[in-house]
Write a structure and sequence with these properties.
eight-stranded mixed β-sheet, disordered N terminus, about 250 residues, alpha/beta
Length: about 250
């Protein structure tokens, strides 16, 4: 998810906030903000081949103008934004079990983009489009108010050290932006394997006046979100996993 569920379930995910770039208006924490941290990684031959073969069909170009979902997907359907998908294991699974939904997925890590394109080709998935661009800029400049039916943010980088907590992705300014872009009844689904971050997610989403928790605290794991092999490994080691699901109020 700007880092894979696989990578992130072990606490090494890359979805976080800063790096270079101009901070969007209204963001009080750090001076510059990004929805990711660049990670080292080599694109494999298979990923490179998938980028070449499937990129023209499934990769979208960033443009600071309203996103035309019908033109991008060739149909009108509920639109789900995913912020960070890493190697795309969960993304591909969810798109396959929810064929009636369109998934707009942001990830800057090229090996991960190639990996998801490879899964798209292998499974014949048609309801995913990828923006290899900072999700914050996509939200600010491409997504209109009340244009989303859902948002997925799975296993973002927990930034374990207290002095780095401000770099976490789930912060009030971003949540406010997302809430504004949800249709009434639309949802935000976050998941993490780091309990202090899970508690922060509950607090931040619970403080957004336009959102309402779907559960009394943490939510049961929705059936569409799969357990990856790395997440299963963490569970065997006794690591917990927490899901947080809020809906936009009418």
């Amino acid at each position: 998810m700007l880092s894979t569920v696989a990578d992130q379930a072990s606490g090494t995910g890359a979805t976080a906030m800063p790096s270079a770039g101009q901070a969007p208006a209204g963001v009080a924490h750090p001076k510059t903000i990004k929805s990711f941290v660049r990670r080292a990684g080599r694109t494999t031959t298979g990923q490179a081949k998938a980028l070449e073969e499937f990129g023209p069909q499934y990769l979208l170009s960033y443009a600071a103008q309203p996103f035309d979902a019908h033109a991008a997907f060739g149909r009108t359907a509920p639109l789900i934004l995913e912020i960070g998908f890493g190697m795309g294991e969960a993304t591909a699974h969810i798109a396959r079990v929810r064929p009636a939904d369109n998934f707009l997925c942001c990830e800057v890590h090229e090996p991960g983009v190639g990996a998801l394109l490879k899964r798209i080709g292998e499974h014949g998935i048609t309801n995913i489009r990828i923006l290899q661009h900072d999700a914050v800029e996509v939200i600010d400049h491409m997504l209109a108010p009340a244009s989303l039916d859902g948002v997925h943010m799975f296993f973002p980088d927990p930034w374990h050290k207290k002095k780095h907590n401000k770099r976490r992705l789930i912060q009030p300014p971003l949540v406010a932006k997302l809430a504004a872009r949800l249709k009434p009844g639309g949802y935000i689904h976050c998941a993490t394997d780091w309990q202090p971050y899970a508690e922060q997610m509950l607090q931040v989403l619970g403080s957004e006046p336009h959102l309402q928790n779907t559960a009394d605290g943490f939510a049961p794991q929705p059936d569409y979100r799969p357990l990856t092999k790395f997440e299963n490994r963490g569970l065997r080691l006794g690591h917990g996993v927490w899901d947080v699901v809020f809906r936009r109020r009418p």
